[in-house]
Structures
1.
Amino acid sequence: MSGVPDNAPEHCPGTQSDDAGKASACAGCPNQNICASGAASGPDPAIQIIKERLSNVKHKILILSGKGGVGKSTVTSLLGHALASRNPEANVGILDADICGPSQPRVLGVRGEQVHNSGSGWSPVYVTDNLSLMSIGFLLGSPDDAVIWRGPKKNGMIKQFLSEVDWGDLDYLLIDTPPGTSDEHLSAVQYLTSAGLDGALVVTTPQEVALLDVRKELQFCTKLGVPVLGVLENMSLFVCPNCKTRSEIFPATTGGAAQMCSELSVPLLGSLPLDPILARCCDDGRDFLQELPNSPAVAALRSIVDKIVATCENTSS
Ligand SMILES: Nc1ncnc2c1ncn2[C@@H]1O[C@H](COP(=O)(O)OP(=O)(O)OP(=O)(O)O)[C@@H](O)[C@H]1O
């Protein structure tokens, strides 16, 4: 049996066992808590496997948000399209790690596609020649199927996604996470840190209620040593397409993301306006950048992408 310490009680299941810290023999053992937490079993072998699997992926970026509904998935898909169209030679992948609410297949217009498993792993679905996607949405029987999983199963899925998808050579991998800081985030950070995580991009809207949660997200990054590439403020302004009046639909009562970023010394990458055509494109799975290439939202997005690319390339050179 592996991992049985010299001073172990009789019938110790061993630190590597699934029963570590939980078997009846563990009762009263001074190491029971540490074994039950999994910390005694040593580094997860998947960390090395993931490091090797992702060795052909130059830049890995986590997309985070404190609150749900602030547009994190929308922003991820837009960034994917913007990175892929900025340089047709670059290959971009999106991993939809929102296990319980995968929305990328719909937003990227590839709902109903199948992923294929071959000797080299799962092949992602290609949205365009140089933009690929992997999502649990492709593995569900129907788009309406609910995934009701506890933490360990979700962690297993993240591990599998990171270790078994055959992305090929990628310049950028964007990882769309669920809102908040939950099991999926911890797993993703645990596995990606040694594979070389460039950092996190945090999406928010201007209201205080969203910014409060962003502060928690930034603290999460600090605690886990994840660099913050910057904050993106979404739905910051609405410009009426008819009269051109500018309105703040979600007013920033406390100075919005700009104030928060200057207080916390994190870069504000830019603001995306609220655009009803953008929302419609996402619902229909159409590429907004192609539909309205001259819109203020696309200009803002391209400037944000330039900053992300500059940061990633500066830190890797
Ligand atoms: N800039 C924008 N302009 C107009 N609509 C937007 C914009 N950003 C997002 N939306 C719309 O807001 C809704 C929520 O966006 P989205 O699903 O991306 O949020 P989310 O933060 O990923 O949510 P969750 O984390 O709960 O899945 C969608 O209908 C989307 O089309």
2.
Amino acid sequence: MVAEVINGKELSTKLKEEMKQEVDLLRKQNLVPHLTVVLVGNNPASRSYVNGKKRASEEVGISSEIIELPETVSEEELLDVIDKLNNEDAVHGILVQLPLPKQITVAHIIEAIDPRKDVDGFHPINIGKMMTGQDTLLPCTPYGILTMLHSKNISIEGKHAVVIGRSNIVGKPVGQLLLNENATVTYCHSRTKNLKELTKQADILVVAVGRPNVINEEYIKSGAVVIDVGINRLEDGTLTGDVDFQSAMKKASYITPVPRGVGPMTITSLLHNTIKAAKGLIK
Ligand SMILES: NC(=O)C1=CN([C@@H]2O[C@H](COP(=O)(O)OP(=O)(O)OC[C@H]3O[C@@H](n4cnc5c(N)ncnc54)[C@H](OP(=O)(O)O)[C@@H]3O)[C@@H](O)[C@H]2O)C=CC1
Ligand SMILES: Nc1nc(=O)c2c([nH]1)NC[C@@H]1CN(c3ccc(C(=O)N[C@@H](CCC(=O)O)C(=O)O)cc3)C=[N+]21
């Protein structure tokens, strides 16, 4: 078997065109969706992601701004910035780029964001709504992954989904969304003892570890769908995922590449959430 590649970049281009039409209509009604991204410090990767979010927003007609704060900013100062944005009617979406410097407790920041403006879908209220199957702003990477599966009509119900990684932003919520669509979900992590035995049972394998080549054909059941979330920058500057792509291609039915896979879909989900927040659909 040779896997079909799910091109996240192409899908994202198509979805952005659809969103642009919707934003054009909203603008005619004098509603200009607006996203504010807060960037703390000078991490080059964060800066590049944030610029990517701004560029994508412009492509669909979402107005966006980046608020830059120094690496030394205190938690109190950052909370002040969030408070102002919460109270600014023209701001529909607020995203605080992670990671944050160590003097700041991430949970305090996420909890300070108005859940109706939490376009990352990280606020405990939004996570709780997701867990109970209510309509809300969903975490961007997991929602992007579900959109990729739906785009290929890959059935989820009754399938065994194995998720490697249990972070609050990727692993846990992607498992929850798959469960909501009636998959049987297994979570693996750094303390999992028999990783290969578990991954070989997966009909859908989601890999979100952050280390190159943790998965190859030996870990994959023939015909499985393999979703590679990892973004690893190699010494020569190239990007690679967590999955040995050439090897996995031989066993999988579908596979997502890195780059041009899950990454662009994360940004597409962010735009989707910003439009949803602007329309006031989140109570
Ligand atoms: N494409 C995209 O849009 C996005 C990509 N990413 C990328 O996805 C990757 C994961 O991100 P994130 O979830 O934030 O990372 P974290 O570092 O928060 O989580 C990594 C997870 O992998 C688990 N893990 C580590 N080593 C192993 C191992 N040897 N075997 C099994 N599990 C292991 C950890 O286990 P434990 O919990 O026990 O420590 C942890 O749960 C990164 O490469 C990141 O850059 C992230 C966000 C968006
Ligand atoms: N509050 C917050 N929300 C996030 O959503 C968030 C975050 N913090 N911190 C970091 C991670 C990482 N992340 C990515 C988004 C897009 C690509 C992406 O578009 N990648 C392109 C390549 C881009 C390149 O070439 O650098 C691709 O995979 O094709 C990657 C990674 C969002 N994150």
